[in-house]
Amino acid sequence: MNNMNTDRRSFLKSTMLAAAGVAVGGAAAAQDSKPPKLDLKLGLDNFAVRNMKWKAPQLIDYAASLKTDSLFITDLGPFEKFDDAYLQDIRKLAADKGLQIQLGSWSICPTSKAFKKDWGTAEEHLELGIRMAKALGSPVFRVILGTGEDRKTEGGIEARIADTVKVLKSKRSQAVDAGVKIAVENHAGDMQSWELVTLIEAAGKDYVGANIDSGNACWTMEDPLENLEILGPYIATSSLRDSMIWESKSGATVQWTAMGDGIVDFKTYFNRFKELCPSAPVHIETISGFPRELAYFNRDFWKTFPKARASDLAKFVALAKKGKSIPPHRSADAKAEQDYQKDQIERSIKYCQDVLGLGLKG
Hints:
The chain is of the alpha/beta class. The chain has helices at residues 2-19, 27-32, 56-65, 84-96, 122-136, 156-170, 172-178, 193-203, 214-219, 224-231, 266-276, 310-320, 334-354, and strands at residues 42-45, 70-73, 100-107, 140-144, 181-185, 208-212, 235-238, 242-248, 251-257, 282-284, 291-294.
C-alpha cells in the first residue's frame, strides 16, 4: 500500500510538472532546455545607447557588464583623442575586460546629403578611420554612403555609388597595409543589398566588405533573411535589430524593436549567418519606437526605386502580411529616453544569449 501511495505521488508530481512545462530533473533539466550555442561573437553597437553620451571607457564598462564579446563604436565622438598612444590604451582597456573593439564612422560619399566635413574631405575621413582602426585593433572600419534621400539626387543612387567607389579606391593601399577591411553599411534606405554588392565588387572585395543591417533592409523593402542571403559572402561585421512590419493603407509600415519583439525569424537568421559569415560578430543596435511607412502603392514612391526587383518586394509583402500594428514610443524627458534605450539593448542582449544561443561568454 505504501509503495502504491509513493508511486501515485510520484506520478502526480511528474504530471503536474509536465503540465507546467517543467521537466523532472531540476537544474540539469533546465540546463538541457537552453538553446544550442552558435559560437558567434555577440556585442553591442554604441548607437543603441546614444543618448547616454558615454566616452569609450564607459562604453567598455557597460559592454563588459552585459557579458558581450565585442563593442562596436560606430562614431568617433566617444574618443577623446585620435593619437595612436591613446587609442592603444583604449584597446588594452577593452582587452583586459575580454572585449574587442570594432570601429566605425559616417558618410564617405562627398556628394551625399549626409556627408559632413567634420573630419576633412571624404578621403581624409577614410584615411583617419583606417589609422584609428589599426591602433584600436579593429579588423574593420564601418562607413556609410548616406541615406534614402540620396536616391533622389541627380543621377540617383548609382551616381552616389560611383562617387563612393572612387573614394574607396583612393585609399586601397592604406587599408590593405593596415589589415583593415572597410565595411560599408546598407544604411537608412540608401541601398538595397544587391546595390551594396555592386559597390563592393566595383571597389574591390579584397579590402571592402559589408556591415549588414537587418533593420535598414526593411526600409528598402527587403526581407531581412533575403538581405542576408545576398550580402552573406561579403559580410565583415554587423549592426542588427528586430522589426515589426504590417500592412497599411499605402503599402506597409516598419517599426524597429528590441530583439524578439518583432517579426524576423532570428533563429533561422543566425543559423544561416553562421554558415555564411561565421567569423563576423553579431552586434545589436536597437533604435526602437518610431514607425516608418513605405508607400509603395503610390506611383511617386517608385521614382527613387526604378530598378527594384519584383521578387524582393513580393517577399517583403508576404512578411508584412504576418505582422501587426504596434504603438510608437514617446519618452517624457531625456532621462526617460536614456532608460528606454538601456532597456531595449539589455533585453535584446539577454534574448540573444538565452533564447538564440549567441555569445561566447553569456
